[in-house]
Each structure stands twice: as C-alpha cells, then as structure tokens.
Specification:
The protein is an alpha+beta fold. Helices cover 38% and strands 18% of the residues. The radius of gyration is 37 Å and the shape is elongated. It starts with 5 loop residues before the first helix and ends in a 5-residue tail after the last helix. The protein binds 3,4-dihydroxyphenylalanine.
C-alpha cells in the first residue's frame, strides 16, 4: 500500500460519511464503522500497519495521520450514533439510558441534629425523655422555682404573658397569669408533682423571651433541661454526669469547669465551662483566648423547690441543669448569626452534617 498523506485523511473521512449515509440499517452502519475502525483489516488498522514498512523519517508523520483519521472517523461515528438513536425514539419519549435526575431529599435541621445527639447521649445514660407545655403559668415557671413576685425575669419586659389566666390545678394556686415559658425549668415542677423520686429526666423544648432579634438573641429558642432527684445525690454526681456528657458531645479530651453562679432554684449554683474543643484549652478566637467555653447553668436543687412540690428536702437531694441548643450549635458550627438557623435558607442549612 502507498504511504498515506494528509489529503488521504480527508478522502477517507468523506468516504466513511458517504457509507454511513447509504447505510439502510443499524447493522449496515455498524459494518461501515468496522471497515474503518475495526481492529483487523480496517482502514485505520492498515494505516497503522504501514508505519512498520515506512522509512524511519516518515514513521512519525504516518502515525500522526493514522491517529488523526481514527479520531475523525470516531467523531463522525459518535455523531451518527447519537442522531440515529434520537431518530429511533418517538418524539417526546424519555431516554431511559440518561442518568436520572436526583430528587432532593429533605434532611434534619442542624438544630435538630444537635438536639437529637444530646437526647441520645442522655438516654444512653439512663435519662427518660419528657416534654412539657410551652404555654405555662407563672406558678410553674417562677413561684415554684423559688423566683419571687419581684424577680426581674418575671418582668413584662422579659416575659411574654398571654391574655387569659388559668384556674388552679393539682398542687398550684388558682388565677395565675399564663405565659410562654421562659425556660424548660418549669417542667421540673410539673414532673415532680406527678412523680415520686427517683427521677432522672431530660426535657427538650422551645422557650420564649421578650428579646429583640440580633446576632445572639431570638424571641424563641430551645433548651434541654435535666433533673435528677433521689437519696444521696451529690454535687459530684452532677459534675460526673455533665463531664460524661461533655466527653460524648464535644470529644473525649473535654474537661469541665464549674464556676459559682446564682439561680434561685439551685443552691449551690454553677455555670459550666468546657475546655475549648477547637484549641483544647490553649486559647483561640473561638474561646476568646480563655481556653474555656460556657455551655450551661446548673446546680443542686434548692430545698424551697422540693417544698413547692411536696418533697421532703431532708430526705431528697438532686441536681438540675439547663443547656441552650442554639448556643451549642452556634459554637459547634461557628455560626456568627443565630438568625440563620431560622431563615430556612437551604444554602445555609445544607452545609451541616445531617
Ligand atoms: N433556667 C436557666 C436558664 O434558662 C438554666 C438553668 C440553670 C436550668 C440552672 C437549671 C439550673 O435547671 O439548675 O438560663
């Protein structure tokens, strides 16, 4: 065979196109393809073979031409096959060989993920999960928790009161103002009134405060309350329980620090810091260079609270805590604006592990 040159590429491609145009069936088209591209005895294969007998200085050029021809013929074949396939399909029919369009699946909200995780940890530790009403009255939310009438948190500026008062029910005086609960601590009272110790519960739920929206405040947010009551429960149990929680939630290296604080319903009261999970206590922007991050309030249940629910404070002791779910989520995911959690913008929500 004569050595091919550049013009031959055009000639062969034109010939291949003509053969395809003449093909009366897919089988004939396939045969034409094989005559040009097949492994043996095809046009491209014979061009490749001429390389062996070509003078050394021409080998490279012929190899290049053979490749050019191969690519041009393949390209024509692809176009032909796509067109033939489309022509064979009735107008408007679905091409079942195309990859499917994925249906967007919903997923849990980042706050739900955090809440589920906390609930999971406490239920593994033997806590029962209970929920209570968001519409509360001031006795359960304040009085029974040792917050007297003049306590500032009860102020109209801080608490969202509702129009209609409720009549008294078991263990509580009548004609109390109703309100949207300002903390899940109200459920401590409801639960203790309905049960006798030992008690080990966590109470997740939404709470409301008369706050304006800003980077760190929303009028509605969520907490998880914890309450343990029994005989011989001590501050060491409180610390051990929360330390175990912190290791599970924030990593095995987490350390806990209790800082004295004040809540009317606990004595002593403490605020709990955990060692910063980003810098492990060395000090970074996240923990404001302190190495510690405040995550919750807690304490030993105040005897006045036991008296309000008819428990003998000489016999029973207990501890309680309240932890903000948004706060943990904000710290965990380093979100700068709490409002993002409530705007339901998928571009934001999709960034979190679901
Ligand atoms: N109720 C408190 C709050 O909303 C949190 C809290 C602090 C709950 C101490 C408790 C506790 O049970 O013992 O900020």
């Amino acid at each position: 065979m004569a050595l091919p040159d550049a013009a031959d590429v055009q000639v062969e491609v034109a010939r291949f196109e003509a053969e395809l145009a003449r093909a009366a069936s897919p089988r004939e088209a396939q045969a034409a393809r094989d005559r040009f591209l097949g492994r043996r005895n095809s046009v491209v294969a014979s061009w490749m073979q001429t390389i062996a007998s070509a003078p050394p200085e021409q080998k490279k050029q012929i190899g290049r031409l053979a490749n050019e021809l191969k690519q041009a013929v393949e390209e024509r074949w692809r176009r032909y096959a796509a067109g033939a396939e489309a022509a064979a399909r009735p107008a408007g029919a679905v091409d079942v060989t195309l990859p499917g369009r994925a249906r967007p699946l919903g997923h849990r909200h980042p706050l739900t993920v955090v809440r589920d995780q906390m609930e999971e940890i406490f239920s593994r530790m033997g806590f029962a999960l209970v929920e209570g009403p968001e519409v509360e009255d001031e006795w359960h939310c304040f009085d029974a928790l040792n917050m007297p009438a003049e306590h500032p948190a009860r102020d109209m500026q801080d608490t969202l009161y509702l129009a209609s008062p409720v009549a008294g029910d078991a263990g509580a005086p009548g004609d109390r103002r109703t309100l949207l609960r300002t903390h899940t601590s109200a459920m401590q009272i409801r639960y203790m009134l309905a049960h006798t110790p030992p008690i080990r519960i966590v109470v997740p739920g939404r709470v409301y405060r008369r706050d304006d929206l800003d980077l760190t405040h929303t009028p509605a947010f969520s907490q998880i309350e914890g309450l343990v009551v029994g005989e011989g429960i001590s501050l060491a149990d409180l610390k051990g329980t929360l330390a175990a929680f912190a290791r599970d939630m924030f990593g095995t290296g987490s350390r806990l620090r209790l800082r004295p604080s004040f809540f009317p319903y606990t004595e002593p009261s403490a605020e709990v810091d955990i060692s910063c999970w980003k810098c492990d206590g060395a000090g970074c922007a996240m923990c404001k260079r302190t190495g510690w991050i405040e995550i919750l309030g807690c304490g030993m249940v105040h005897p006045a609270v036991f008296e309000a629910v008819g428990y003998d404070p000489e016999r029973y002791t207990g501890f309680a805590w309240g932890i903000g779910i948004e706060r943990v989520a904000i710290l965990r995911y380093q979100v700068e604006d709490i409002r993002l959690f409530y705007e339901n913008d998928l571009r934001f929500l999709e960034q979190f592990p679901h």
